[in-house]
Amino acid sequence: MKPAPFTYHDPRSVSDAVALLATHDNARVLAGGQSLMPMMNFRYAMPDHLIDLNKVSELAYIRVENNTLNIGAMTRQRDIEFSADIGQHCPLLHAALAHVGHRQTRNRGTLGGSLCHQDPSAEMVNMAALLDATMHVVSQRGARDIPLADFAVAYMTTALEPDELLAGVTFALPAKKHGHAFVEFARRHGDFAIVACSTMLALDSHGNISNATIALSGLSHAPLRPAAIEQALLGQKPDAATFKAAAAEAEKISAISDAYVSSAYRQHLARVLTCRALEQAAAHAKEMQHG
Amino acid sequence: MADTRTISAIVNGKSHTATIETRLTLVDFLRHELKLTGTHVGCEHGVCGACTVLVGGISARACLMLAVQCDGLEVATVESLAADGKLNTLQQAFQDNHGLQCGFCTPGMLMTLTEFLRDHPEPNEAQVREALSGNLCRCTGYQGIVDAALDAAKKMRGTTR
Ligand code: FES
Ligand code: FES
Predict the structure, then answer these.
(1) A38: nearest CA partner in chain B
(2) What's A167-218 look like in SS3?
(3) Which end of chain A lies in a sparser environment, N or C, as judged by fewer CB atoms within 10 Å?
(4) What pTM value is reported for the model?
């Protein structure tokens, strides 16, 4: 099918874009178009006004500052994928991006578009949860910051008001040497994951776990950080018994079900993938310690 | 009143100016306005890859772009590959290796591989398969396409390694 008629706007600045959003009803913001365009072609989305951000160059940037990674909402997944800065400071993001769509979709797709679409299994949403992302939101009324935990309010629904747009994202970079892993299970390469697990582990001088973060996607409307599992890992030896115990707890987290995948299957995947991710991250952490 | 704009785009090296509805997708612009029907439309939601073209040298799904977004940009379609009625190396490799049957997916495969082989002149089979992961083929089972890509890469490097 074809998109229903709309009035097209292509602002060149954030201030022009938010002015358009403030004055037009039923307006949608177009980022890379890899989710909204299919929805418009199918007429799931029928905006009266389409505000195309592709010419707002101030929204595309990658900056590393004081242990934070700052990425503009209109930064294309391709540019994150090929950024040497990100390779150096946050290689985990590259590992996650390898699972995002395909060459053609990463060429157009943006970070902000993925985060605002909020597919529960989207890899970039998982990264935002793992790296304690803060969303920078603007409107004509002013700017506000929303922590990721408050950004996803329901299934594929964000906290953005109709007159607001996501301008950029700040990720917290892990301070010390750590190991990381991103694993997921999808029916085909490039599909959204059924369940995905990312993790970062740091080891102290005795080789015990001194810091652990885990983000699990596919169990709920948004990725979750299992705080109790993260806590329980602290001070433990990074060995098979520790990871098995952590994975067993991950399996107990309640999970959604849909027409394709039962909650029991998702819980099974949560166990398997948590164990795999922790093992990989521990191996990587040991390498980092000795390397 | 339909919302329209006048755009100029360079398609396959030739400049085109047209007044179009802003809701027109790039793939429909190519096929219906410019009559470049080599680019195919399969799913219209970014899944099949049949509509793949290069915009500014970078592959994109033409069903997920609006024609108005290509104002001032260069677009290359499958029609840009053969010169003077002679298949280029990649196209010839498809013929030689049974890389197509019905041909529906072929324009997208060719444009995806045009970008990929430009950026990766010495790919291995796994890389080729990953590069093609966004293009669906219902006929060949992919093996002939993968063989064609590897064969073309070899010939484009000018070696028989
Ligand atoms: S028609 Fe564009 S991806 Fe299928
Ligand atoms: S040759 Fe028929 S779909 Fe690929």
Answers:
(1) B45
(2) EEEEEECCCCCCEEEEEEECCCCCCCCCEEEEEEEEECCCCCEEEEEEEEEC
(3) C
(4) 0.94
Q: Which residues contact B124 (CB under 8 A, 6 or more apart)?
A: none
Instruction: Compute the half-sphere exposure of residue A177: CA atoms within 13 Å on the CB side of its CA.
Output: 14
State pLDDT tens for residues A138-175.
999 999 999 999 999 999 999 999 999 999 999 999 87
Domains of chain A, CATH where assigned: 7-52 (3.30.43.10), 57-172 (3.30.465.10), 179-290 (3.30.390.50)
- Looking at residue A193, what DSSP letter applies? P
Of B3, B45, B60, the CB nearest to A41: B45
Tens-digit pLDDT profile for residues A27-45: 999 999 999 999 999 999 9
Indicate if the pLDDT at residue B161 is higher than 50. no
Q: Report chain B residues whose CB lies below 8 A from the CB of A188.
A: 133
Tokens of A222: 């948004």
pLDDT score at A50: 98
B53 touches chain A (CB under 8 A): no
- Does this chain's domain B4-79 share its CATH topology with B89-157? no
Strand partners, A172: A68
Does pLDDT of B159 surpass 70? no
Beta bridge partners, A137, equal: A144, A166
Q: Tell me how far the alpha carbon of residue A95 lies from the centroid of ligand 2, in angstroms.
A: 31
Name chain A contacts of B68, Cβ cutoff 8 Å.
8, 10
